[in-house]
Amino acid sequence: MHHGGPDGPQGGAVRVDGGYMTNRHLQTAESAPAARVQVALFNLPPVYRRGLGVGLTEAGYVVHLPSDVVAWAAESTGPRVAVTIDSDSSLDALDSVRTVSRDVVSVVLVEEATLVGYTRALPRCTAAVPLNAELDDVLAAIRAARHGFTMMPIDIAQILAARGEANAEPPDLSERELAWLRALANNVTVLSLARQSGYSEREMYRLLSALYERLGTTTRTSALLRADRLGLLRSSMPTQLTVDVTDRTATRRAANGLRSG
To answer: pTM to 2 decimals?
Structure first.
Protein backbone atom coordinates (compact mmCIF):
# COMPACT_ATOMS: atom_id res chain seq x y z
CA MET A 1 0.00 0.00 0.00
CA HIS A 2 1.58 3.24 -1.12
CA HIS A 3 -0.19 5.84 0.94
CA GLY A 4 0.99 8.24 3.58
CA GLY A 5 0.39 11.59 5.18
CA PRO A 6 1.58 13.82 8.04
CA ASP A 7 0.42 13.08 11.56
CA GLY A 8 0.21 16.75 12.52
CA PRO A 9 -3.00 18.64 13.33
CA GLN A 10 -3.80 19.43 9.69
CA GLY A 11 -3.27 16.10 7.94
CA GLY A 12 -3.26 13.52 10.72
CA ALA A 13 -5.73 10.74 11.52
CA VAL A 14 -7.46 10.10 14.83
CA ARG A 15 -8.83 6.75 15.93
CA VAL A 16 -12.56 7.05 16.65
CA ASP A 17 -14.84 4.20 17.77
CA GLY A 18 -12.40 1.54 16.63
CA GLY A 19 -11.70 3.21 13.29
CA TYR A 20 -9.89 6.22 11.86
CA MET A 21 -11.03 9.73 11.09
CA THR A 22 -8.87 12.55 9.79
CA ASN A 23 -8.90 15.89 11.56
CA ARG A 24 -10.67 17.38 8.55
CA HIS A 25 -13.44 14.81 8.81
CA LEU A 26 -13.71 15.30 12.57
CA GLN A 27 -14.57 18.92 11.89
CA THR A 28 -17.36 18.00 9.45
CA ALA A 29 -18.56 14.70 10.92
CA GLU A 30 -21.95 16.03 11.94
CA SER A 31 -22.75 17.00 8.34
CA ALA A 32 -21.65 13.65 6.89
CA PRO A 33 -24.36 11.49 5.26
CA ALA A 34 -25.90 8.95 7.65
CA ALA A 35 -25.73 6.10 5.13
CA ARG A 36 -22.03 6.21 4.28
CA VAL A 37 -20.42 2.92 3.41
CA GLN A 38 -18.87 1.12 6.39
CA VAL A 39 -15.61 -0.74 5.82
CA ALA A 40 -14.24 -3.28 8.29
CA LEU A 41 -10.49 -3.89 8.19
CA PHE A 42 -9.38 -7.08 9.91
CA ASN A 43 -6.32 -9.33 10.07
CA LEU A 44 -4.23 -6.75 8.21
CA PRO A 45 -0.60 -5.90 9.05
CA PRO A 46 -0.66 -2.88 11.42
CA VAL A 47 1.26 -0.45 9.20
CA TYR A 48 -0.76 -1.44 6.14
CA ARG A 49 -4.00 -1.18 8.13
CA ARG A 50 -3.17 2.35 9.25
CA GLY A 51 -2.38 3.58 5.74
CA LEU A 52 -5.45 1.95 4.26
CA GLY A 53 -7.61 3.23 7.11
CA VAL A 54 -6.52 6.82 6.51
CA GLY A 55 -6.96 6.50 2.74
CA LEU A 56 -10.46 5.04 3.06
CA THR A 57 -11.51 7.70 5.54
CA GLU A 58 -10.28 10.48 3.29
CA ALA A 59 -12.27 8.85 0.46
CA GLY A 60 -15.46 9.17 2.54
CA TYR A 61 -15.78 5.67 4.01
CA VAL A 62 -16.49 4.94 7.67
CA VAL A 63 -13.66 2.66 8.78
CA HIS A 64 -14.00 0.05 11.55
CA LEU A 65 -11.36 -2.19 13.11
CA PRO A 66 -13.52 -4.90 14.67
CA SER A 67 -11.96 -7.52 16.91
CA ASP A 68 -14.77 -9.85 15.78
CA VAL A 69 -15.73 -9.23 12.16
CA VAL A 70 -18.57 -11.78 12.30
CA ALA A 71 -20.19 -9.92 15.21
CA TRP A 72 -19.68 -6.64 13.32
CA ALA A 73 -21.44 -8.07 10.27
CA ALA A 74 -24.34 -9.34 12.39
CA GLU A 75 -24.84 -6.11 14.35
CA SER A 76 -24.13 -3.39 11.78
CA THR A 77 -26.51 -2.17 9.09
CA GLY A 78 -26.33 -0.32 5.80
CA PRO A 79 -23.80 -0.78 3.00
CA ARG A 80 -20.80 -2.70 4.37
CA VAL A 81 -17.51 -4.01 3.03
CA ALA A 82 -15.04 -6.34 4.76
CA VAL A 83 -11.38 -6.04 3.73
CA THR A 84 -8.77 -8.60 4.74
CA ILE A 85 -5.84 -10.70 3.51
CA ASP A 86 -5.93 -14.18 2.02
CA SER A 87 -4.82 -16.13 5.09
CA ASP A 88 -6.75 -19.28 6.00
CA SER A 89 -8.24 -17.66 9.11
CA SER A 90 -9.32 -14.57 7.16
CA LEU A 91 -11.02 -16.58 4.43
CA ASP A 92 -12.72 -18.74 7.06
CA ALA A 93 -13.95 -15.54 8.72
CA LEU A 94 -15.43 -14.35 5.42
CA ASP A 95 -17.30 -17.64 5.14
CA SER A 96 -18.77 -16.99 8.58
CA VAL A 97 -19.62 -13.40 7.65
CA ARG A 98 -21.67 -14.66 4.72
CA THR A 99 -23.67 -16.93 7.00
CA VAL A 100 -24.78 -14.04 9.22
CA SER A 101 -25.22 -11.39 6.52
CA ARG A 102 -25.37 -11.93 2.78
CA ASP A 103 -25.31 -8.15 2.27
CA VAL A 104 -21.69 -7.72 3.30
CA VAL A 105 -19.34 -7.67 0.31
CA SER A 106 -15.66 -8.43 0.68
CA VAL A 107 -12.31 -7.55 -0.82
CA VAL A 108 -9.33 -9.82 -0.26
CA LEU A 109 -5.77 -8.54 -0.56
CA VAL A 110 -3.83 -11.39 -2.15
CA GLU A 111 -0.28 -11.72 -0.83
CA GLU A 112 0.91 -13.82 -3.78
CA ALA A 113 -0.85 -12.38 -6.84
CA THR A 114 -0.59 -15.60 -8.82
CA LEU A 115 -3.15 -17.88 -10.42
CA VAL A 116 -3.05 -20.10 -7.35
CA GLY A 117 -3.61 -17.14 -5.05
CA TYR A 118 -6.60 -15.83 -6.99
CA THR A 119 -8.11 -19.29 -7.52
CA ARG A 120 -7.96 -19.81 -3.77
CA ALA A 121 -9.38 -16.42 -2.79
CA LEU A 122 -12.06 -15.60 -5.36
CA PRO A 123 -14.57 -18.35 -4.47
CA ARG A 124 -14.70 -16.93 -0.94
CA CYS A 125 -14.86 -13.18 -1.56
CA THR A 126 -16.41 -10.59 -3.84
CA ALA A 127 -13.21 -9.08 -5.26
CA ALA A 128 -9.46 -9.51 -4.91
CA VAL A 129 -6.45 -7.29 -5.55
CA PRO A 130 -2.74 -7.75 -4.82
CA LEU A 131 -1.61 -6.85 -1.32
CA ASN A 132 0.89 -4.39 -2.79
CA ALA A 133 -1.74 -2.62 -4.92
CA GLU A 134 -1.95 1.16 -4.98
CA LEU A 135 -4.60 2.78 -2.81
CA ASP A 136 -6.57 3.83 -5.90
CA ASP A 137 -6.75 0.19 -6.99
CA VAL A 138 -8.06 -0.93 -3.60
CA LEU A 139 -10.68 1.84 -3.69
CA ALA A 140 -11.67 0.76 -7.20
CA ALA A 141 -11.99 -2.85 -6.00
CA ILE A 142 -14.26 -1.76 -3.15
CA ARG A 143 -16.46 0.27 -5.49
CA ALA A 144 -16.64 -2.63 -7.94
CA ALA A 145 -17.51 -5.12 -5.20
CA ARG A 146 -20.34 -2.92 -3.98
CA HIS A 147 -21.84 -3.05 -7.47
CA GLY A 148 -21.42 -6.80 -7.89
CA PHE A 149 -18.21 -6.83 -9.92
CA THR A 150 -14.73 -8.12 -9.24
CA MET A 151 -11.24 -6.99 -10.19
CA MET A 152 -8.16 -8.99 -11.05
CA PRO A 153 -5.02 -8.65 -13.19
CA ILE A 154 -5.67 -9.15 -16.89
CA ASP A 155 -3.31 -12.10 -17.19
CA ILE A 156 -5.08 -13.92 -14.33
CA ALA A 157 -8.49 -13.23 -15.89
CA GLN A 158 -7.34 -14.54 -19.25
CA ILE A 159 -5.98 -17.76 -17.74
CA LEU A 160 -9.18 -18.35 -15.77
CA ALA A 161 -11.29 -17.66 -18.86
CA ALA A 162 -9.20 -20.05 -20.94
CA ARG A 163 -9.60 -22.72 -18.29
CA GLY A 164 -13.34 -22.21 -18.32
CA GLU A 165 -13.42 -22.59 -22.09
CA ALA A 166 -11.32 -25.74 -21.93
CA ASN A 167 -13.59 -27.29 -19.32
CA ALA A 168 -16.84 -26.22 -21.01
CA GLU A 169 -19.05 -28.87 -22.51
CA PRO A 170 -19.63 -28.21 -26.23
CA PRO A 171 -23.28 -27.98 -27.31
CA ASP A 172 -24.79 -31.04 -28.95
CA LEU A 173 -24.72 -30.04 -32.61
CA SER A 174 -25.88 -32.06 -35.57
CA GLU A 175 -23.48 -33.07 -38.34
CA ARG A 176 -25.17 -30.53 -40.60
CA GLU A 177 -24.65 -27.71 -38.08
CA LEU A 178 -21.02 -28.69 -37.65
CA ALA A 179 -20.64 -28.66 -41.43
CA TRP A 180 -22.09 -25.15 -41.54
CA LEU A 181 -19.55 -23.93 -39.02
CA ARG A 182 -16.67 -25.54 -40.89
CA ALA A 183 -17.89 -24.09 -44.15
CA LEU A 184 -18.08 -20.60 -42.64
CA ALA A 185 -14.58 -21.08 -41.22
CA ASN A 186 -13.44 -21.78 -44.79
CA ASN A 187 -14.91 -18.45 -45.93
CA VAL A 188 -18.01 -19.90 -47.60
CA THR A 189 -20.60 -17.14 -47.90
CA VAL A 190 -24.01 -17.41 -46.23
CA LEU A 191 -25.65 -17.19 -49.68
CA SER A 192 -23.59 -20.14 -50.96
CA LEU A 193 -24.29 -22.06 -47.76
CA ALA A 194 -28.00 -21.43 -48.16
CA ARG A 195 -28.00 -22.68 -51.75
CA GLN A 196 -26.02 -25.79 -50.85
CA SER A 197 -28.35 -26.54 -47.94
CA GLY A 198 -31.61 -25.86 -49.75
CA TYR A 199 -32.70 -22.80 -47.77
CA SER A 200 -33.39 -19.23 -48.72
CA GLU A 201 -30.71 -16.77 -47.65
CA ARG A 202 -33.09 -15.32 -45.07
CA GLU A 203 -33.78 -18.76 -43.60
CA MET A 204 -30.08 -19.49 -43.52
CA TYR A 205 -29.34 -16.32 -41.55
CA ARG A 206 -32.09 -17.23 -39.10
CA LEU A 207 -30.76 -20.76 -38.62
CA LEU A 208 -27.22 -19.52 -38.18
CA SER A 209 -28.36 -16.98 -35.59
CA ALA A 210 -29.96 -19.82 -33.63
CA LEU A 211 -26.74 -21.81 -33.96
CA TYR A 212 -24.65 -18.89 -32.70
CA GLU A 213 -26.97 -18.58 -29.74
CA ARG A 214 -26.42 -22.22 -28.85
CA LEU A 215 -22.71 -21.49 -28.85
CA GLY A 216 -23.32 -18.70 -26.36
CA THR A 217 -22.75 -15.78 -28.69
CA THR A 218 -24.48 -13.63 -31.30
CA THR A 219 -21.97 -13.05 -34.09
CA ARG A 220 -20.34 -15.22 -36.73
CA THR A 221 -16.78 -14.31 -35.72
CA SER A 222 -17.23 -15.02 -32.01
CA ALA A 223 -19.16 -18.23 -32.79
CA LEU A 224 -16.29 -19.51 -34.95
CA LEU A 225 -13.74 -18.57 -32.31
CA ARG A 226 -15.68 -20.44 -29.65
CA ALA A 227 -16.26 -23.42 -31.95
CA ASP A 228 -12.53 -23.55 -32.65
CA ARG A 229 -11.68 -23.48 -28.93
CA LEU A 230 -14.14 -26.31 -28.36
CA GLY A 231 -12.52 -28.35 -31.12
CA LEU A 232 -15.64 -28.34 -33.31
CA LEU A 233 -13.85 -27.17 -36.46
CA ARG A 234 -11.29 -29.98 -36.57
CA SER A 235 -12.60 -32.26 -39.29
CA SER A 236 -11.82 -33.30 -42.81
CA MET A 237 -15.52 -33.12 -43.64
CA PRO A 238 -16.03 -31.40 -47.02
CA THR A 239 -17.77 -28.06 -47.04
CA GLN A 240 -19.96 -29.04 -50.01
CA LEU A 241 -23.35 -29.87 -48.52
CA THR A 242 -26.13 -32.04 -49.88
CA VAL A 243 -29.79 -31.32 -49.31
CA ASP A 244 -31.65 -33.63 -46.94
CA VAL A 245 -35.32 -32.59 -46.76
CA THR A 246 -35.97 -34.45 -43.49
CA ASP A 247 -32.91 -32.99 -41.78
CA ARG A 248 -33.73 -29.53 -43.13
CA THR A 249 -37.25 -29.66 -41.67
CA ALA A 250 -35.97 -30.82 -38.29
CA THR A 251 -33.36 -28.07 -38.21
CA ARG A 252 -35.94 -25.42 -39.06
CA ARG A 253 -38.21 -26.64 -36.27
CA ALA A 254 -35.31 -26.55 -33.78
CA ALA A 255 -34.54 -22.97 -34.75
CA ASN A 256 -38.19 -21.98 -34.41
CA GLY A 257 -38.26 -23.61 -30.98
CA LEU A 258 -35.25 -21.59 -29.86
CA ARG A 259 -36.85 -18.35 -31.00
CA SER A 260 -40.18 -19.06 -29.36
CA GLY A 261 -38.46 -20.12 -26.11
So the answer is: 0.55
